[in-house]
Amino acid sequence: MQVPSHVEYERAASLEHALSLLSRPETRVLAGGHSLIPMMKLRLAQPELLVDINGLAELAFITLDRGQLRIGALARHADLLESKVAGECFPIFHDAERVVADPIVRLWGTVGGSLCQADPSEDLSAAFAAARATAVIRGRDGDREVAVRDFHRGPYETVIGRGELLAEIRVPVRPGTGSAYEKVSRRVGDWSIAAAGAVLTIKGQTISEAGLGLTAVGAEHFVAAEAEDYLRGRPADEDAFTRAAEIAAEHCHPAADQRGPEDFKRHLVAELTTRALRRAAERAT
Ligand SMILES: Cc1cc2nc3c(=O)[nH]c(=O)nc-3n(C[C@H](O)[C@H](O)[C@H](O)COP(=O)(O)OP(=O)(O)OC[C@H]3O[C@@H](n4cnc5c(N)ncnc54)[C@H](O)[C@@H]3O)c2cc1C
Hints:
By secondary structure, this protein is α+β, with helices and mostly antiparallel strands.
């Protein structure tokens, strides 16, 4: 099936307008459309109304504000990749954006659309989970904040309700923090076979906080929680990184598919987690 079913279209003139349209049933936000339109063509999504938010410039920003990196939901992948402040605070986002799709998709696809699509292979979901980011969800009664680690209910499902949209993502900036993202795909611009993101805060030689995100390998909420627990309080050295990576590989749930068998994906998780931790530690110091 290559033709979407009948759908109404409204271009939101303001945030208020968007939120009032979104309170109607069977309504979807249209951001970059790179995931939603193909899903509509395949009739995997059949909204009755599309609310186009591309005119809402107030949702397209990237800024450092009182110790937090704030990224508007309508910031494009290319904006995040080009953002100096994002790259300085969190190189993990530049690492990840460099390997998200191709330049054409990155010019139009949005950060908010990536998170809201809730595809288990979405690179930014794991990167934001590793960075312990917070999603700001806006409704007509105001904002509510949800940890990105609690944002996805499961594949293709988020906690956003009727009459709400994702407005921005906030990431706390901590001194002594380094981050990195490592991905293996079958060819340039493809989705991950597996990927790992690491965010380490190091005091002296000791890891005081660790965030580990995994992409496309069935990690609950995109997080390697057991490996994070292992790392906290340990010296930031090769032994700790290798063992944490083994733990991450043991606790994820990759599925065998056209991208490879389960044991190959676990092997990638171990290797990519070690590399991401090593690079994050180098950057922290
Ligand atoms: C060829 C191709 C290759 C790709 N490769 C990769 C890859 O390697 N890695 C990767 O991570 N991604 C990849 N992507 C995904 C892409 O990068 C986009 O992130 C993704 O398409 C979603 O962004 P979008 O703005 O296009 O969202 P849309 O398609 O507009 O929306 C996606 C979903 O999110 C909802 N939504 C969007 N914005 C909001 C909001 N602010 N509030 C509430 N709901 C919202 C929509 O209603 C819809 O349900 C690829 C896409 C394509 C087409």
